[in-house]
């Protein structure tokens, strides 16, 4: 083995808190377990063990500590329109499938005034999302009325490509999920072809819920949701956590997850084992705002071909965007960190900017038109990846009212250098407010189009 350089050692230490699956033996065992367990539909029990093991080998490099961030919890878009029936939000296959499903769907309704002995109609709704999830079929839409739902939700029924299952908060952020048990995940979507749209998840009432929403069934999405204060009371250790998480990657049974239009903040305090959005498979991360968390957007485990586009990421204790995961469990020949497209993102005022692996990285990841500014280190990338960087000058993006801990206004000022400087390729067709994109001469950088 080549003797590591000082730079390699330094970077390994920096990335290690977020770095999963260091052992090939553990990883292979977990892969086998994943396939077996998925086949028997008992992923719930599998989740905690797998997730915990990911970080086990890196405990010795952990340096951050847990703190409780006291950010203002209400983002600027609270009063915007209901996203649930708008199918133009995501220019991916998800949108098309959702439209098809809606046209042929049966519908169930859930409200805090309902009862699980009701038939689940609009006139006589269920009381719990859990009850609705037990009766859905491919093509079903579950409409959830505003109110607080103290539930630990596991959804297991699979939709299909042409008949997705949708869980919709009929008022954006109006249906609020709060912890009801000591479960690791507050909402775990094990069924595939599932869309979760417009919910609020508030984990502040639990010290054991370390994942807000988790997708494991493949071909699924979380859209337009607000996940906050997850893991802020948890121990900062290698068990880690995330506001939103997509599991199952290369060589495993399921893939293709989309995170679009979400606001995620206060996940894990300053703990480097916690992530706003953690993606370990294929898919997209677009139009999200992620802040005041341990890390911002993390593509670990077996992530590859993830399109991370038009996100606004600020004020996270560690990296804004981190990618990698295979560098120790695999060699570059069987698990290159490949095909990531990190474009049009604002990465501002984080502990680090964009960081990736030194080895096992084939130069196919691209980092274009990102505005990376005022991070402790803006770029911490391998030579292969640095060759793929085409970024804006490192200048102030000029938010309307920047507050590091949240509660500011993260739209662009008219003089912002981010305006009209994004790439059109893979850019979402609307912005985080639902405004059509592009507006003006070209796509802007960040989650909001000026
Ligand atoms: Ca524009």
UniProtKB/TrEMBL annotation:
Q: In terms of one coarse class, where is the protein primarily found?
A: secreted
What GO molecular function annotations does the UniProt record carry, in alphabetical order?
A: carbon-oxygen lyase activity, acting on polysaccharides; metal ion binding
Name this polypeptide is given:
Choice-of-anchor Q domain-containing protein
The similarity annotation says: Belongs to the polysaccharide lyase 9 family.
UniProt cofactor(s): Ca(2+)
Which key words are in the record?
A: Calcium, Lyase, Metal-binding, Secreted, Signal
InterPro entries for the chain: Beta_helix, Choice_anch_Q_dom, DUF1565, PbH1, Pectin_lyas_fold, Pectin_lyase_fold/virulence, Polysaccharide_Lyase_9
Give me the stretches of Low complexity compositional bias.
Answer: 63-94
UniProt key word Lyase? yes
Cellular component terms per the entry's GO annotation: extracellular region
Q: Where is this region: Disordered?
A: 60-94
The listed locations are: Secreted
- SMART domains, A to Z: PbH1
**NCBIfam families linked:** choice_anch_Q
Query: Which source organism does the UniProt entry give?
Result: Polaromonas hydrogenivorans
Give start and end of each Right handed beta helix domain: 212-333
Residue limits of the DUF1565 domain? 113-153
């Amino acid at each position: 083995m080549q003797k590591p350089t000082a730079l390699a050692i330094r970077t390994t230490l920096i990335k290690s808190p977020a770095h999963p699956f260091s052992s090939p033996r553990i990883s292979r065992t977990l892969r086998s377990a994943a396939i077996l367990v998925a086949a028997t539909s008992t992923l719930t029990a599998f989740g905690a063990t797998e997730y915990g093991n990911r970080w086990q080998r890196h405990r010795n490099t952990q340096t951050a500590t847990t703190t409780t961030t006291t950010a203002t919890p209400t983002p600027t878009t609270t009063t915007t329109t209901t996203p649930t029936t708008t199918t133009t939000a995501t220019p991916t296959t998800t949108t098309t499938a959702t439209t098809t499903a809606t046209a042929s769907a049966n519908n169930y309704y859930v409200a805090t005034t309902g009862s699980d002995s009701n038939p689940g109609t609009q006139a006589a709704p269920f009381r719990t999302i859990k009850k609705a999830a037990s009766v859905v079929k491919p093509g079903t839409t579950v409409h959830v009325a505003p109110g607080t739902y103290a539930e630990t939700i596991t959804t297991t029924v699979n939709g299909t490509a042409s008949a997705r299952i949708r869980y919709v908060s009929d008022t954006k952020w109006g249906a609020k999920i709060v912890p009801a048990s000591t479960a690791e995940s507050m909402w775990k979507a094990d069924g595939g072809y599932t869309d979760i749209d417009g919910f609020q998840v508030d984990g502040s009432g639990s010290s054991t819920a370390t994942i807000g929403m988790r997708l494991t069934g493949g071909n699924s999405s979380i859209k337009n949701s607000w996940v906050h204060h997850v893991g802020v009371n948890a121990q900062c250790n290698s068990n880690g956590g995330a506001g939103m998480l997509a599991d199952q990657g290369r060589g495993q049974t399921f893939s293709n997850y989309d995170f679009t239009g979400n606001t995620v903040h206060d996940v894990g305090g300053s703990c480097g084992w916690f992530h706003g959005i953690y993606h370990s498979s294929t898919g997209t991360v677009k139009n999200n705002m992620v802040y005041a968390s341990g890390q911002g957007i993390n593509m670990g485990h077996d992530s590859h071909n993830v399109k991370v586009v038009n996100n606004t990421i600020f004020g996270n204790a560690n990296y804004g965007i981190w990618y990698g995961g295979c560098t120790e469990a695999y060699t570059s020949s069987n698990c290159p960190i490949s095909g990531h497209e990190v474009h049009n993102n604002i990465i501002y005022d984080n502990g680090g900017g964009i960081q990736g692996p030194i080895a096992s990285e084939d130069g196919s990841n691209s980092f274009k038109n990102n505005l990376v500014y005022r991070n402790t280190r803006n770029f911490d990338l391998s030579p292969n990846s640095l060759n793929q960087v085409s970024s804006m000058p490192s200048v102030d993006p000029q938010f309307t009212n920047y507050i590091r801990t949240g509660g500011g206004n993260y739209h662009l000022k008219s003089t912002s250098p981010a305006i009209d400087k994004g790439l059109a390729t893979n850019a979402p067709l609307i912005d985080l407010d639902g405004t059509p994109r592009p507006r003006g001469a070209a796509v802007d950088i960040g989650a909001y189009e000026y």
